[in-house]
TrEMBL record, chain A:
It comes from Candidula unifasciata. Its main location: membrane. It comes from the Eukaryota. Residues 29-70 form the RING-type domain. This is RING-type E3 ubiquitin transferase. Keywords: Membrane, Metal-binding, Transferase, Transmembrane, Transmembrane helix, Ubl conjugation pathway, Zinc, Zinc-finger. GO terms for molecular function: ubiquitin protein ligase activity; zinc ion binding. Its EC number is 2.3.2.27. Residues 1-12 have a biased composition (Polar residues). Residues 1-24, 80-114 are annotated as: Disordered. The chain crosses the membrane at residues 124-144, 164-182.
Automatic annotation (TrEMBL), chain B:
GO terms for biological process: cell division. PANTHER family: UBIQUITIN-CONJUGATING ENZYME E2. It catalyses: S-ubiquitinyl-[E1 ubiquitin-activating enzyme]-L-cysteine + [E2 ubiquitin-conjugating enzyme]-L-cysteine = [E1 ubiquitin-activating enzyme]-L-cysteine + S-ubiquitinyl-[E2 ubiquitin-conjugating enzyme]-L-cysteine; S-ubiquitinyl-[E1 ubiquitin-activating enzyme]-L-cysteine + [acceptor protein]-L-lysine = [E1 ubiquitin-activating enzyme]-L-cysteine + N(6)-monoubiquitinyl-[acceptor protein]-L-lysine. This is Ubiquitin-conjugating enzyme E2 C. The active site is at C99 (glycyl thioester intermediate). Accepts ubiquitin from the E1 complex and catalyzes its covalent attachment to other proteins. In vitro catalyzes 'Lys-11'- and 'Lys-48'-linked polyubiquitination. Acts as an essential factor of the anaphase promoting complex/cyclosome (APC/C), a cell cycle-regulated ubiquitin ligase that controls progression through mitosis. Acts by initiating 'Lys-11'-linked polyubiquitin chains on APC/C substrates, leading to the degradation of APC/C substrates by the proteasome and promoting mitotic exit.
């Protein structure tokens, strides 16, 4: 202890080492000049506290250079340093994450046409064109409780007419599908 | 939330104070020739510095007082330095503002009071004539004999004036 004190005092009196801190300054952050806290080292070999370097980079988004040697530097080009004794080393760069990017949500709109075509859910609405034609037939043939007027009473001329019409359409649909398969 | 923000501001100010104390120690122990600086009163964020012109330059034996103001974000942001003694120099304007790249776009967190004062000291003897704040001084710089004459005239006038004003202050008190 006393030997340490003497050596320190002789060192500070020695004109060759005017700055005593140069001797123990090896592991000090180049920005805050304290022993590096959450240390990271740049590719050019300069040590910083991650919070200090993060602040330095944040204020200069367009000109990210090492404060010591002005080499190029970025978040991805620094290496965290893990000393002994920390059971759960955590990458310091994760502790001070960059600010999350802004999120923009669509305004709620009363425009009735907004959900036509490619809807918000990603469903393509198969609502027009010849492709929907046969399904329209099936829907009107097999779905009787869809709010439209019910089927006409049996054995009425209207019913015979409708059955004829639906058979005609069914055959047209079958021929159309057949044509599609051949073509 | 607000309390933690206040805490973090206090913590940051504490870190800046720590760094400034360290710089003061470094500066006093380095014994750099012709420069000195010390906090003005209790406020660590405002220092008064002095620079003596380097020997072999026209500014030899002339001493200048400067003010150093540290922002709360120091050393991420540069220290603001101004001549308090009027300084006749191509890169210093009549208000004492200094045109020096390392105090502006070339600032680095690694620079400290010592390197800034040394840079200004060497700027005195090696002005940047191409981007002058004082065009007249820049024009005159070519003729070093005449420059020195004008410089000394101005310096003596200013120093005498400030000496007179201090004497007047003494008489008043």
């Amino acid at each position: 202890m006393s030997a340490d004190a003497t050596s320190a005092s002789t060192r500070s009196n020695d004109p060759k080492t005017p700055n005593e801190e140069d001797q123990n300054g090896t592991y000090e952050c180049n920005i805050c000049l304290e022993t590096a806290n959450d240390p990271v080292v740049s590719m050019c070999g300069h040590l910083f506290c991650w919070p200090c370097l993060h602040q330095w980079l944040e204020t200069r988004p367009n000109r990210q250079t090492c404060p010591v040697c002005k080499a190029g530097i970025s978040k991805d080009k620094v290496i965290p340093i893990y000393g002994r004794g920390n059971p759960n080393p955590q990458d310091p760069r994760e502790k001070l994450p960059p600010r999350p990017a802004g999120q923009r949500s669509e305004p709620e709109s009363s425009n009735p046409f907004q959900n036509l075509g490619f809807g918000g859910d990603g469903n393509f609405q198969f609502s027009f064109g010849i492709g929907a034609f046969p399904f329209g037939i099936f829907a009107s043939t097999f779905n009787f409780n869809d709010g439209r007027p019910g089927p006409p009473p049996p054995n009425s001329p209207q019913q015979a007419e409708e059955q004829f019409l639906s058979k005609v359409f069914l055959w047209v649909a079958i021929i159309f599908i057949f044509w599609l398969l051949i073509a | 939330m607000a309390e933690s923000a206040v805490e973090s501001v206090k913590l940051a100010a504490n870190n800046v104070t720590k760094r400034l104390q360290k710089e003061l120690r470094t500066l006093m122990m380095s014994g750099s020739h012709g420069i000195s600086a010390f906090p003005e009163g209790d406020n660590m964020f405002r220092w008064i510095g002095t620079i003596e012109g380097a020997s072999g330059t026209v500014y030899e034996n002339l001493a200048y007082k400067l003010s150093l103001t540290f922002p709360a974000t120091y050393p991420i942001e540069a220290v603001k330095v101004k001549f308090e003694t009027p300084c006749y120099h191509p890169n210093v304007d009549s208000h004492g503002n200094i045109c020096l790249d390392i105090l502006k776009e070339k600032w680095s967190a690694l620079y400290d009071v010592r390197t800034v004062l040394l840079s200004i000291q060497s700027l005195l003897g090696e002005p940047n004539i191409d981007s002058p704040l004082n065009a007249q001084a820049a024009d005159l710089w070519k003729d070093q004999t005449l420059y020195k004459k004008v410089l000394l005239e101005k310096y003596n006038k200013e120093v005498r004036k400030s000496d007179d004003s201090t004497q007047q202050l003494h008489k008043l008190s």
